């Protein structure tokens, strides 16, 4: 089993649309894993059934038992994160501010404060509209530890790939270079970089590839909407040559991208156009690079 991770330095490059298309082209050889847990959206295209779910617990927060609390205010006085509020003579924890340090619980004379592990999201193992497996997750609003949830999604997908004898785990990673991206890259066999010919797109491509180099992972690149700025496209191509990033494809601007999304379809199932042909060739090229 090989793990292919699709990432981009910035949002809006078409990363998820391409990942979903490759998942469809891979068919039953692929388990799709949506590791963009902070803003998961690949389910909109692959339409999983959310068949199996489990709660994801990570991180700790303080909670006050009001029936025990004597309203002494010691917790309020020691909290350095402004996480304790006093409203109508009643102390409560502001969950978004709480860092889980536990100091309030240590000074409470009545043991009225509990440090509780938090339910911060859900993990799903689903069957897609094409009857293939998909692992995805949803992080709660304002919740932290997205990197740990990414690791959970990836590890679950790998186990299922081994059990069902799949050839690939295809990961839709987060944009940027933060903790979720680092977690997505860990253990990968190949990284597909998706970029666009804009100043910010090129800048963020350099930034994310600098991160990829630290993992010593083979990488390829797709330039989406390449015909919007031929000058920057040429600069990206020269950068790929210098850094020995494998050229996968250049995709022209095509409104079929948006039209497919509005119909909850991938590009490869939406129409028989040039984009579909290029993506079929790209998927073949990616598989050959992963095997070698």
CATH fold call of the largest domain: Rossmann fold
Beta-strand percent range: 25-35%
Helix content: 25-40%
Low-confidence runs (pLDDT<50, min 5 residues)? none
| Tally of DSSP helical segments | 11
Characterization of this structure:
With 292 residues, the chain is an alpha/beta fold. The protein folds into 2 domains: 210 residues, 3-Layer(aba) Sandwich (Rossmann fold); 61 residues, 2-Layer Sandwich (Alpha-Beta Plaits), CATH 3.30.70. Helices cover 38% and strands 28% of the residues. It is built from 11 helices and 11 strands. The chain has a 9-stranded mixed sheet with strand order 3-6-7-2-8-1-9-10-11, sandwiched between helices. It has a two-stranded antiparallel sheet with strand order 4-5. The longest helix is centred in the middle third of the chain and has 18 residues. The chain is elongated. The mean pLDDT is 93.
């Amino acid at each position: 089993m090989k793990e292919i991770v699709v990432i981009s330095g910035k949002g809006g490059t078409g990363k998820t649309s391409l990942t979903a298309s490759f998942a469809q082209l891979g068919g039953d050889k692929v388990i799709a894993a949506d590791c963009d847990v902070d803003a998961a959206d690949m389910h909109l295209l692959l339409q999983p059934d959310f068949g199996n779910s489990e709660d994801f617990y990570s991180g700790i927060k303080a909670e006050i038992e009001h029936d025990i609390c004597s309203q002494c205010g010691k917790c309020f006085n020691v909290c350095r994160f402004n996480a304790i509020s006093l409203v109508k003579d009643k102390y409560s924890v502001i969950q978004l501010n709480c860092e889980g340090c536990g100091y309030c619980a240590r000074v409470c004379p009545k043991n009225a404060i509990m440090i509780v592990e938090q339910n911060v999201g859900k993990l799903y193992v689903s069957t897609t509209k094409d009857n293939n497996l998909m692992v995805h997750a949803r992080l709660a609003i304002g919740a932290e530890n997205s990197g740990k949830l990414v690791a959970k999604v990836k590890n679950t997908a790998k186990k299922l790939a081994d059990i069902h004898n799949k050839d690939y785990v295809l990961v839709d990673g987060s944009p940027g270079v933060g903790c979720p991206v680092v977690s997505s890259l860990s253990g990968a066999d190949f990284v597909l970089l998706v970029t666009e010919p804009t100043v910010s797109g090129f800048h963020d491509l350099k930034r994310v590839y600098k991160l990829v180099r630290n993992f010593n992972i083979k990488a390829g690149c797709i330039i989406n909407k390449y015909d919007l700025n031929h000058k920057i496209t040429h600069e990206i191509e020269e950068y790929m040559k210098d850094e020995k990033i494998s050229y996968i494809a250049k995709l022209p601007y095509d409104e079929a991208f948006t039209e497919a999304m509005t119909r909850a379809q991938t590009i490869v199932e939406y129409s028989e156009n040039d984009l579909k042909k290029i993506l079929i060739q790209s998927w073949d090229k990616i598989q050959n690079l992963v095997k070698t």
